[in-house]
């Protein structure tokens, strides 16, 4: 994933347009993931409308917005499930995600966790992490593979990160809802992603599970870029470093939690004040 940015031709005329382009190019240099001028239409409805978003390496970003604001479509574009009508999506400095399949994007370092946990319920917690490990998934190698010491150490490390070390031999189907969510995050971690996309992680959790999830996601930032889509504002407030508010497919506001809460437009269209 090394290399240089594709050449960008600046506007011939001096002025604000050229300055804006220079600013975007400079901003891209600090970003692990960037979307520029993305538009997605479904039967004439613009789910995303000239959306521009930059996610820095190692940052924790929360994305909020009312139903229909474009949050799911944004995730779908990043992971290759939906192709935009216009715009650019780059991972790192040179990887054009619009030229990759969903599988290639996942294998390349972008992991996505959906709201409903999907684990192998009849396998143990340890086996779930083993199955998720980035390895040769063809039938024969998987059937007869033996874990190396390094692989076992990695599983143990992830078990500690997600707080399920004591549950390693427990069948995943017997875990609580929160524990299943943590296990699925652990399964993504086994693939060593650079970016984690996490959709409504605390829906249906107890207060204690929500608190533990906040600690987990906060601990992952730095080693990974973590993008969290969530409706629970108390949870967002507990983890937020930078918040992006979407409205009608575009970025309405961006900044700290205090910044967006005090933004008049956010108060009007999202917070209902």
What do these coordinates show?
With 273 residues, the protein is α/β, with parallel strands linked by helices. The chain has one domain: P-loop containing nucleotide triphosphate hydrolases (Rossmann fold, 3-Layer(aba) Sandwich), CATH 3.40.50. Helix content is 37%, strand content 23%. The chain has eleven helices and ten strands. The strands form two sheets. It has a six-stranded mixed β-sheet, sandwiched between helices. Strands 2-1-4-5 form a four-stranded antiparallel β-sheet, covered by helices on one side. The longest helix is centred in the middle third of the chain and has 14 residues. The radius of gyration is 20 Å and the shape is globular. The termini are far apart.
How would you summarize this macromolecular structure in one to three sentences?
This protein is of the alpha/beta class and 273 residues long. Helices cover 37% and strands 23% of the residues.
How do the helices and strands line up, and which of them pair or pack?
Layout: H1 16-28, E1 31-42, E2 45-56, E3 60-64, H2 71-78, E4 86-91, E5 95-96, H3 102-108, E6 110-113, H4 125-132, H5 139-144, H6 149-162, H7 177-189, E7 195-199, H8 207-220, E8 225-229, H9 233-239, E9 242-247, E10 250-255, H10 257-261, H11 264-269
Parallel strand pairs: 3-8, 3-9, 6-7, 7-8
Antiparallel strand pairs: 1-2, 1-4, 4-5, 9-10
